[in-house]
Structures are given as C-alpha cells and as structure tokens.
C-alpha cells in the first residue's frame, strides 16, 4: 500500500492551505502543468484525504479552477476522474472498508471477548476516502459535461466527455483461483435465500439472476495502491470509466456498513470477513417490504446522500445539452442505469426510492428524527425524487431495443391496493405539509411573486412528475386514484393549489404548467369528471380559501373559477397554456351539473373576450381557443341542458355574439377597431377595445402604424392609449381594481365597446333577450355577497369584467328597461352578468328605433394600417386566413339551440305576469329548465376527451 503521510491522514489545516494554493503540489498544478501522471500517487491521494465535508470540497476546489483545467490541460481532468473512479471501485471490495463489527458472543464467553474496536492496520480512513471520491467526482463531472467539443491545437482530446467517461480503457486486475471465487458466489445465493425467510420479514428480491457484483471483477488495479502489492498472475479487460463508476455507485448504495446496516445473517455468518458486503435489500418499509432495516443510523443516511448525489450528477447530462440537441444526443449514463441493470437490482432500487419518498413526512418512520424534520432526511428525499425523475422519464433512443426502460416497466407492474394506498398517503402528507407552510392571509410580503414560502426540500416539480408518470403508465394506480371520491378531490385540490400559487411567479412557473397538464390529463377520465360533479363535492376541497373561494355546491364550480383566474391573473405568463386550460373545460363540459350563477357569469366573460375581434385577429392560434370554448358549450347543451339553467341563460344572452361570429369578416372587424380608436381620440379619453385580449403578456400596448393621410389627432392618441392600458395592467397586479372610481371607468368603457360592436346586430333579434338582463338567481347572489371584500375585489380582477360588485347597485351604470320587473332591493335587482345596452335596447319593447347612421367606409390603406397594428409579433391577419378559421368553427349546436330558445325567452319575458313579478328571475330559470331541445340538437355520440 501507498504510505500516506501523517499530515494528509489527519487533515492538517496547513496541508489544506498548501493544497489550495501551491502550484507544485496543489490544485493549481492541474492547470499549470500538462500531463500529470496517474502514477503520481502522492499528488492524487490528496483529493481523497484532505477534505472533511462537501462544503470543504466546494470551498477548496472551485468551479473556475476546474474549468481552467478543462481548457488548458484537459488530460489532467481526465486523469483525475479516472484515478478517483478506480480508487472508489477498489474500496468496495476492500475488507478494511466499512469492516464488519466484532461479534459479541454474549453470556459467559463475553467475559473473554474484547469489546474494543479492531485497530486499523495502516491508519487509513477508507470511509473518508470513499466519501471524498464521491464529493470530488460530483464537483468535476459537470465540468466534463459542459465542455465544448471540437478539435484542439494543443491536445488530442476533441470530446472531453467521451474521452473521460465513455472510452474503453484497458485495465489490469489480479486473477484469483476458482476456489477463491466460488465461496463468494455461493455465499451470496445462500444469504439471499436466508434473508427472504428471516423472521424480520425483510423482503429481498432475488431470483437467481446474475447480480451486478458478478459482472465485474472483485478487484481492479487501484492507482493509489503500490504495484508491488499486486498478485503476480494478472489478466486484462476493457471497460469505460463511466460504466465502471455507475456499477460502483449502485453497489455502494447497498453496501453493508457504509449505506446500510449489517443484517443478522451477515453477522452470524461463519464465512467471516469474506461474506458479501453488497446486498440489494430495500431500504425502507413500504412497497415490497413490510419493515424497515433494523439499526439504520443517520450516518448510513448521510453516506447514502453522498453516493446518490454523485449518481444524480452522472444522470444530469440533459441539463447541459441544448434543447434542439436533446433528441440526437446520447445519454449513456441514464441508458445504462435504466436499461442495463439486472432485475433484482432494479426492483430493489426502485422500491427503495419510492418508499423513501412516500415515507418522507411520516414521522413515525424514523425514530431518530425530530418532530420538525431533519435536513439529512430532506436531502435524501430530494435526491430520491430527482433520481426517480431521471430514470422514469428516460426513453431509449432505440425504441425497438430488446431491453426497455426497466424502471418504468416495473413501475407499471404495481397492482396491489396496499401499495397504492401507501403512495397516496405519503403524497397527501407531503402536499398537506406544503399547504400548511404557506403564508397566512394577514402576513406581509410581496404579492407579485409566489404566494407561499416553499422550502427547497419540498421539490414539488419532481413529485408532480412522478405522480404524472404513475397516472399515465399504471392504469391500476390511475383507477385507484380517480375511483375514490376523496382521493380524486384531494388530488384535484393539490393540483389547483400548485397552479394558483405559482401562476405569476417566473421561478416556479413550471410547477403551475405541470399541474395544468396533469389536470387536463385527469379530466379526460370520465370517472374523475363525475367525482367533480357529485353533490357537495366542493365542501371536500382542500384548496386554501385565500387562493380560491367556493361559490357553489360542486367542485366543478371551482374548476371554472380556477380556469378564469389562471386566464386573467397570470400576467400573461400562462398564455402558452390557454388551450390546455380551455381543454379542461371542454373535457368536463358533458358532466356539468347545477353550476352556480358566478360560474355561468365567468363563462360568459370568457366567451365575450375570446370572441372579440381584437383577440381573434391578434394571433394566428387565437381562433382555435375560441373553437374549443364554443365546443365546450355545445357539449354541455347536448349532454346536460336540463341541469344547467344558469349556463343556458348566459348563452341566450350571448346570442348576438354567436350571430356576429357567423358573419365575421376581416374588413368589418378592422372597421370596428378603427371606430373605437377614433371615438377615443375624439372624446379625449381612451376606451377599452371590446374586449381586450385575454390578458396580454406585458402591459405594453402595440402601436398603430397610421398612414400619412390620417389626421394628426389619430396619430397622437396612441401614447395616451398605451399609458392608459399600462396603468390598468399595473392596477390589476397591485390589487387596486376594487376602487369605485376604477370600476365606474371600466364599466363605462366596456358598455360603449359592446354598444359599438352591437350596431351590426339585428335589433329585433337582440332586443327582448337583453331585456332579461335583470333576471337572476337571488339566492346565489346573496351567497356571493357573503364572501366578503375579497369576493368583490375578484369580480373586477379582469378590467373587462362585466359583473357588478355586490355592494353596488346595477343602476349605477346600467339603466333598467321598462319591461324589467320592479326591483324590490338591490339584491334582487342585480343582474348575474349585466350586458351593456345599445341604443336599440334603450327603447321600449315594441317601439321601432331609428337605425344609426352608417359610418363612412374606410380606405384600403386605413384597413391595412389597422391590420398591421392589431397583430402580435409581426402577425398580420388576412381575409383568406379569417375565412379558413371561420369555416372551421362549429356553430351548428349553438345556433340550433339559440334559434329555438331566444324566441321562447323573448315571448316569456314580454308577458306582464312575468315582467312585473317580484321573483321574475326564478321564474325565468324555471322556464328554461322546463324547455326541451329534443329533436333540435343532434344526438349525443360517444364522449370524446382531450388528454394531454
């Protein structure tokens, strides 16, 4: 063995200082001297003995120095990784590494047994050496991954990663006689059989397959061991450093005395020191195992963390790969772990990872942990989640390969209800703890970022990935979760919680996006949708009220409210996910039942905004979102017409919008937008364009490119308009929408916008329908008022909201027509979602209104200027594009239903007995429930869904 200097063995502080600064014997030598020999043991051994902790390694071996080494002397970085990997490999089979404790015979013979630990033969701390190898490799491998490829003038290494980890190297190993090898093989099989039958009920998966430890030799040449200690009989073999290191890591994770306790069978074995130290035994109780490993200590957990951290680093190659190169760049480390390990190893490792995660928040699992948790345990769970994400999401490049992703394969084979209950319970406790640690409603803090303070150990992103993989790839687990009412509502609550708390926080936005994808996937399941519409399901939701208020009896009301909030309160960050949010509504529409008044009003707001000319012409993909929303209403009408009177009522009110879409033209829409801007300039104020795009990614308003012939007044109005909209966006984010002055201005602008857009509609078709705007469900409105100030503030969260606040009578902005029933109180007279009237609606029913004077036609130059200004990111709408998406809109169901219902509602509201009734709202809703569309709508076919 190499003689270790005492200064290195005991970690003298001066030695650390010299190692950090000396150009002759320290770290600077790595990048100042070329081609340091691997045989320079006294230099390389410092990397294994001087450090005492991970922080010590990070403080001494800087990333800048490693990058300088990769640039100026890459061969030294290759040698460093190879030397440490081989030394770590040699320690696994070293009998002095994590030695077996002395057996205490007990009884009378114990009097003659020494209890003192056996002295170390060479004063080496092999455990410390192994930990330092893991720490330094964890520090160096990211530099290898991030290095650029390409020819170099001063080196023959054109691909540092391939040369360091994936190039086969010829190694020399001492060969042992068959008589020396046979006991080790025999002892492992016997041990596995004995363990499976032990009284402790510890489940070890062993079916006679070859283990990882049999694939590689018992000993390899240790570069830190003197050559004269090697056996005279040698043989050579080729193996890559990366594969050898991965094998070593897997063995260290199941190494008795290092990361796992010694079992009773090992301690009582008659083989003695030659007993196998690597046993693929599940770490914790849970799946595949009924009890924890006895005598597991925090030291075992700390060692396990160091090894897992190195494994995660090796699996992190995709992080250093550009997105466009992900599909073409190989991932040898993940491929080897996921597809090349043996079945017993995969099963034990997979169960160990899952059990560790599921036991995270179960305090009774680990008696040595305090009630408040332990950072060691938190770090272990974090690394287990990261490892699961890496191996479960990996897809082999060769889909026809004989060996698939074994971790994913065996995950799909879970089927026991007890295993699913164990995973669900562990997941629930993790989310419940995260929710409990959020900010309270009265705590101060930034309101623009995430609404709760998460500890870094929670790792919501990784947990969501594991849950989604289980739901998508294990049908038994999916059925278990969606088939249980409470579990379905709990999962729905967790996902909404994650989405709402991270919707406007860029650092954690990916968590909100992932939660929305899972929700879309779950809503494609019929059973899950039914659970959301069961009676009183809203009461079983666990979303904090400060994030989402319950205003109905079913959880589906919360779905609509959450979608509305994500659309209007995400500051544009969720814009790429608008289609996914609308598909959630589309998937659930056939199961809507007894939606509340506020939910119906939210749907009306979404329809008005998505159907606005400005939104439709702003982006090439916007008409698709309108199509999804229209399909949502169509599916509801075909499947649940009789149980959704509130939604049917808002559709009747929205009949002019449907008619406008049917005759939508590019020139007409551009003229409408031009008139709005012209009127705003003439009046000396800015009105909201009807309605504004759902919400803009930034408050900056696109400028209008006007022609030279346009008036100076039209040209100078844009800065004012931009400043106005910027102020509105800032007001929205600062939570100041509840002020009375803002509410009046918003509603006045919206009324004028809708009035302008309504000029093109038929007055006879819309007059009677708009006369019903004061009719509502009084009970639901009363309940909505009890929500408090927050409820009022939320109603006007969107600047285009047409819901009046509960503390403001509708007469403040809308005049009641003569045919409206007299309002006994502000509560009964307040409309559910008042629609701004046009001039035709101001006239009494039956009186012909004077048609408005048509405005002058715009020139083609003016139309082109408006078209260039309305599009986003350089998009310019064309007539051919409008004709293409307009023909793809399926309005057949809505048109048929409204053609049948609008005349009925108009006739019913014209009846004086209804119009003058104190409970006209209840009568109209009851009237709509009694109507039938049998024979009017096409027959319902097989329900289709849109999974993610």
| Radius of gyration, CA atoms, in whole angstroms | 35 Å
Q: What number is the mean pLDDT?
A: 75
Question: How large is the count of helical segments?
Answer: 46
Instruction: Tell me the β content.
Output: under 5%
Overall 3D geometry?
elongated
> Termini, distance in Å?
59 Å
Sheet/helix structural class? mainly alpha
Structure commentary:
The chain is mainly alpha-helical and 948 residues long. Helices cover 53% and strands 1% of the residues. It is built from 46 helices and 2 strands. It has a two-stranded antiparallel ribbon with strand order 1-2. Helix 24 runs parallel beside helix 27. The longest helix is centred in the first third of the chain and has 21 residues, at 126-146. Mean pLDDT is 75; it is low at 6-11, 104-116, 174-221, 226-233, 364-372, 439-454 and 686-849. Residues 149-164, 183-198, 707-727, 734-758, 765-796 have a biased composition (Basic and acidic residues). Residues 147-199, 685-863 are annotated as: Disordered. Residues 820-830 have a biased composition (Low complexity). Residues 166-182 have a biased composition (Polar residues).
Keywords:
46 helices, mainly alpha, Hid-1/Ecm30, elongated, single chain, 948 residues
Topology:
Elements lengths: L5 H4 L3 H9 L7 H4 L8 H4 L1 H4 L4 H7 L2 H10 L1 H19 L33 H21 L13 H6 L2 E7 L3 H19 L15 H4 L18 E7 H13 L10 H4 L30 H17 L17 H8 L3 H16 L16 H18 L13 H6 L5 H20 L23 H14 L1 H9 L1 H18 L6 H15 L2 H7 L22 H14 L9 H11 L8 H14 L2 H6 L3 H19 L4 H9 L1 H8 L3 H18 L28 H4 L1 H18 L5 H19 L4 H8 L7 H8 L3 H7 L30 H4 L9 H4 L17 H11 L8 H10 L3 H19 L1 H4 L4 H11 L18
Antiparallel strand pairs: 1-2
Helix pairs in contact: 7-8, 7-9, 8-9, 8-13, 9-15, 13-15, 15-18, 17-18, 17-20, 18-21, 20-23, 21-22, 21-24, 23-24, 23-26, 24-27, 26-27, 26-28, 27-30, 28-31, 31-46, 33-42, 37-44
């Amino acid at each position: 063995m190499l003689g270790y200097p005492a200064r290195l063995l005991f970690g003298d502080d001066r030695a650390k200082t010299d190692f950090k600064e000396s150009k002759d014997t320290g770290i600077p030598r790595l990048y100042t001297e070329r081609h340091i020999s691997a045989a320079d043991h006294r230099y390389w051994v410092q990397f294994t003995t001087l450090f005492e902790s991970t922080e010590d390694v990070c403080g001494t071996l800087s990333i800048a120095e490693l990058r300088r080494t990769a640039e100026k002397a890459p061969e030294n970085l290759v040698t460093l990784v190879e030397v440490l990997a081989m030394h770590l490999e040699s320690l696994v089979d070293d009998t002095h590494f994590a030695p077996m404790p002395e057996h205490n015979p007990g009884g009378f013979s114990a009097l003659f047994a020494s209890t003192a630990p056996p002295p170390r033969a060479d004063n080496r701390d092999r455990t410390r050496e192994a930990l330092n190898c893991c720490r330094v490799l964890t520090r160096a491998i990211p530099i290898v991954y991030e290095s650029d490829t390409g020819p170099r003038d001063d080196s023959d290494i054109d691909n540092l990663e391939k040369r360091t980890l994936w190039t086969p190297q010829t190694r020399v190993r001492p060969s042992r006689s068959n008589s020396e090898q046979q006991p080790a093989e025999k002892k492992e099989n016997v041990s596995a059989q004995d363990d499976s039958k032990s009284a402790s009920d510890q489940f070890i998966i062993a079916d006679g397959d070859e283990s990882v430890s049999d694939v590689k030799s018992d000993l390899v040449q240790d570069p830190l061991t003197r050559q004269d200690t090697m056996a005279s009989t040698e043989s050579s073999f080729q193996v890559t450093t990366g594969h050898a290191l991965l094998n070593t890591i897997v063995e260290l994770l199941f190494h008795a005395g290092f990361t796992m306790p010694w079992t009773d069978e090992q301690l009582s074995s008659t083989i003695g020191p030659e007993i196998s130290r690597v046993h693929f035994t599940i770490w914790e109780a849970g799946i595949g195992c009924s009890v924890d490993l006895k005598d597991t200590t925090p030291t075992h957990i700390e060692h396990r963390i160091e090894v897992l951290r190195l494994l995660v680093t090796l699996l992190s190659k995709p992080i250093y790969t550009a997105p466009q190169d992900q599909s073409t760049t190989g991932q040898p480390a993940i491929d080897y772990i996921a597809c090349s390990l043996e079945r017993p190893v995969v099963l034990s490792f997979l169960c160990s990872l899952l059990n560790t995660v599921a036991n995270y928040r179960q305090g009774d699992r680990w008696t040595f942990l305090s009630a408040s948790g332990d950072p060691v345990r938190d770090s272990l769970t974090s690394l287990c989640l990261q490892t699961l994400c890496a191996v479960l999401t990996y897809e082999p490049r060769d889909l026809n390969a004989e060996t698939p992703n074994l971790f994913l394969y065996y995950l799909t084979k879970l089927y026991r209800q007890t295993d699913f209950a164990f995973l669900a319970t562990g997941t629930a406790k993790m989310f419940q703890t995260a929710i409990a640690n959020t900010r309270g409603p009265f705590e101060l803090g930034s309101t623009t970022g995430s609404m709760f303070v998460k500890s870094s150990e929670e790792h919501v992103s990784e947990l969501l990935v594991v849950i989604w993989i289980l739901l998508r790839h294990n049908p038994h687990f999916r059925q278990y979760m969606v088939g249980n009412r409470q579990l379905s509502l709990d999962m729905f609550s967790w996902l909404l919680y994650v989405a709402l708390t991270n919707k406007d926080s860029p650092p954690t936005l990916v968590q909100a996006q992932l939660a929305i994808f899972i929700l879309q996937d779950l809503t494609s399941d019929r059973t899950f949708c039914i659970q959301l519409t069961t009676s009183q399901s809203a009461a079983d939701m666990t979303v904090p009220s400060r994030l989402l208020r319950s205003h109905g009896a079913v959880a589906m009301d919360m779905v609509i409210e959450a979608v509305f909030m994500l659309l209007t309160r995400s500051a544009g960050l969720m814009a790429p996910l608008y289609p996914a949010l609308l598909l959630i509504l589309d998937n659930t529409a056939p199961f809507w039942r007894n939606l509340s008044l506020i939910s119906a009003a939210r749907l009306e707001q979404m329809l008005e905004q998505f159907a606005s000319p400005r939104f439709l012409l702003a982006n090439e993909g916007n008409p698709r979102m309108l199509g999804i929303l229209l399909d949502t209403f169509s599916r509801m009408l075909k499947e649940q017409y009789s149980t959704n009177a509130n939604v049917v009522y808002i559709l009747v009110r929205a009949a002019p919008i449907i008619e406008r879409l049917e005759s939508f033209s590019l020139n007409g829409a551009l003229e409408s937008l031009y008139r709005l801007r012209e009127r705003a300039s003439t009046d000396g104020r800015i009105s909201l364009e009807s309605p504004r795009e759902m919400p803009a990614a930034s408050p900056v308003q696109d400028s209008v490119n006007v022609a030279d012939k346009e008036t100076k007044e039209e040209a100078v109005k844009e800065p004012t308009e931009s400043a106005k909209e910027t102020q509105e966006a800032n007001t929205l984010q600062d939570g100041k929408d509840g002020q009375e002055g803002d509410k009046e201005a918003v509603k006045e602008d919206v009324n004028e916008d809708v009035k302008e857009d309504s000029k093109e509609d038929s007055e006879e078709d819309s007059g009677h329908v708009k006369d019903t705007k004061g009719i509502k469900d009084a009970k639901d409105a009363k309940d909505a008022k009890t929500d408090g100030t927050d409820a009022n503030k939320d109603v006007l969260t969107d600047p285009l909201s047409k819901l009046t606040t509960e503390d403001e009578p509708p007469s403040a902005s809308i005049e009641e027509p003569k045919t409206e029933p007299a309002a006994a109180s502000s509560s009964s007279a307040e409309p559910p979602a008042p629609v701004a009237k046009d001039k035709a609606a101001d006239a009494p029913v039956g009186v012909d209104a004077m048609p408005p004077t048509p405005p002058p036609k715009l020139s083609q130059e003016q139309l082109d200027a408006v078209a260039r200004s309305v599009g986003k990111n350089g998009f310019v709408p064309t007539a051919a594009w409008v004709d293409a998406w307009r023909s793809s809109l399926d309005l057949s169901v809505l048109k048929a239903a409204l053609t049948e219902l609008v005349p009925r509602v108009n006739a019913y509201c014209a009846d004086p007995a209804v119009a003058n009734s104190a409970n006209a709202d209840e009568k109209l809703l009851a009237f709509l429930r009694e109507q039938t569309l049998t024979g009017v709508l096409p027959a319902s076919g097989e329900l289709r869904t849109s999974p993610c």
